[in-house]
From TrEMBL:
Protein name (Swiss-Prot/TrEMBL): [Ribosomal protein bS18]-alanine N-acetyltransferase
Protein source organism: Ornithinimicrobium humiphilum
Main enzyme class: transferase
GO cellular component, one term: cytoplasm
Family annotation (PANTHER family): AMINOALKYLPHOSPHONATE N-ACETYLTRANSFERASE-RELATED-RELATED
GO terms assigned for molecular function: protein-N-terminal-alanine acetyltransferase activity
Taxonomic path: Bacteria, Bacillati, Actinomycetota, Actinomycetes, Micrococcales
Length: 155
């Protein structure tokens, strides 16, 4: 698996994986485009498989606009999960945030997203706020809380 900075040519592959990873409220290719347009206050990384096509296996993005950096997104394709790739991408975001001089890193996660909450717990994130009923759910299901988590960066 190779991890490198994302480029414009990765947009379509990222949007495809996004739709697979986030069945509700997936970002469009246009939204990724507008994120990329905000560089250098955004940093996006992609992990590519070692196949001939360099298929995108995961990606992660960070905003370094504020005093605290913010995880904009992180996703790993279903067939690559549980292999340490999510943790590798998250660690890279932390290094990027520290290099940009951030004091900490914020993110938002659905309360029912156990894999993501597990990942963030391993990296020392702590709950700072709960937004009640913030996330939409699949048809008919009740809305889900958003948890705002923060990790202090040690310098
Ligand atoms: C969340 C996500 C990025 C994790 O990626 P991953 O590559 O599978 O994670 P890793 O293999 O690096 O796992 C790192 C740690 O996360 C936790 N974790 C991973 N999968 C988990 C699961 N299914 N249940 C509970 N904890 C889990 C574990 O603590 C794990 O450490 P361990 O392997 O030592 O036990 C992945 O599940 C994903 O893309 N989900 C869909 C998109 C998403 O929800 N993104 C987050 C939005 S906030």
């Amino acid at each position: 698996m190779r991890v490198r900075e994302a480029g414009w040519r990765d947009l379509a592959g990222m949007a495809r994986l996004e739709a697979e990873c986030f069945p509700v409220d997936a970002w469009s290719e246009g939204l990724f485009w507008s994120e990329f347009a905000q560089r250098p206050q955004r940093a996006y990384w992609v992990a590519t498989a070692d196949d001939a096509d360099g298929t995108i296996a995961g990606y992660a993005g960070l905003s370094t606009a504020g005093e605290d950096a913010e995880v904009m997104t992180i996703a790993v394709g279903p067939e690559h999960r549980g292999t340490g790739l999510g943790a590798r991408l998250l660690d890279l975001l932390h290094e990027t945030a520290a290099a940009a001089g951030a004091s900490g890193v914020l993110l938002e996660v659905r309360a029912d997203n156990e894999p993501a909450r597990g990942l963030y717990a391993t990296r020392g994130y702590q709950l700072v706020h709960t937004r009640r009923g913030y996330y939409r759910s699949a048809q008919g299901a009740p809305a889900v809380d958003a948890l705002v988590l923060r990790k202090e960066l040690t310098r």
